[in-house]
Amino acid sequence: MGAALFKPVIHPDFHDLFSKMSFVDQLGFLLVHELDKRNLWHQMPVPIGLVYLTTRRTLLEKYDLKAVGSYQGLQFHAENFPYRTGDGKYNDPKNAEAGSQYSFFGRNMNPVDQKAELMDPDPVVVASKLLARRDYKDTGKQFNILAAAWIQFMVHDWMDHLEDTQQIEIVAPKEVASECPLKSFKFFATKEIPTNNDGIKTGHYNSRTAWWDGSAIYGDNGEKAKKLRTYVDGKLMIGDDGLLLHEENGVALSGDIRNSWAGVSILQALFTKEHNAVCDALKEEDPKLTDEELYRYARLVTSAVIAKIHTIDWTVELLKTKTMRAGMRANWYGLLGKSIKDTFGHIGGPILGGLVGLKKPNNHGVPYSLTEEFTSVYRMHSLIPSTLKLRDPTAKPGPSKSPPPYLEDIDIGNLLGLRGEELLSKIGFEKQTVSMGHQACGALELWNYPSFFRNVIPQNVDGTSRPDPIDLAALEGTILISLCTNTSKLRIFVLHQDWYHNSI
Known about the structure:
By secondary structure, the chain is mainly alpha-helical.
């Protein structure tokens, strides 16, 4: 009866879901639904906003997490694995494989066959008419280019679909062909893999580790991790100039170097040095620690620092509302706050004590993973400007903390891939970092997608270049069509916070 009564005020896409909810959850859903329709949640007083966010997260945890593959994995004793493993195994004591390399992406909803819709409208038309940069817009003082590179640094830690050997070709239609740098291009399909389980029959593997484990620095498997170590005092390899070292073919030596650019390389170098600094601090505290112990402990510390920065610094600045700031700090410290947590440790459950420091994983009945919908919406290439304004970090500081003197503009397209690594070595760590820190990044708006991504050389997993360029905007146009042709997906990422609390 309740579902029928409220049917007129609920979007049709939610009718079936609403009818399956408990009465209390239906009331929570109506609150969230009404605030969403009016775009009000971020404008409410902070206490009401926190109630909204908590209600939304509770509903997402109950109704929007779908398992792909087996629910059960190998169990183990947590005390036998008090450190990060190379391939992301042994984090959940009840499922050793959860979140590891080559495990399934999860889902926030059941798969829907959209093959008929994906070319209508044509993704190249979407890229040309809605995404392609016209008049560049930036974020002013809110977000700089380091912050733009940060989210790409995180994606290199979290997710990458395993590819098939089959290629797909996209051809620009006549009406926009003159606006496209590529009249056609090919890319590899995502490999579809049987789950051998009831429910969702096929899924896709994540070739990276889904945990927040710093794998963009350390690698996604033990073999890669060994290649990056010095085996002296637990440290990682880094160049004397503060930049990543390179193999003979110019590929950088770091945890994940596929489809990268100088901005991500700078952050990989920065946190490599952070790892080494932690090793020095640990050794000073306890000189008896072995190389292996120093490495493991420093990785735990560095991964936690990265997760903390993303939670209570980066995300807060991206969305920049008082409610979001309070919500993300509550995720980390709990409603009792930082002082209580620092003094007494984790008290109570996730609401009072925060998501960090829970005594056991809380996976809401499904194995931990990142979801297909999460990968679909985490698209922020518009943050990248067209040029980088190089500045002189050696100059004396000006009045009122003014930026260092301007030197020249660098086309950011030249900072992509192997060419970018070569140019970065000439610019240097300090000049690149200072310049990125003093320049606003692009705004997340339509008609602000960088043109150089429409004719970009993709890379293999080992960082080597592929022979043919792709139109990245057209590929993301396909994802945009997928989201718009299935409006149920649009509810997923308004605030899908629950994914990360087990990854710390």
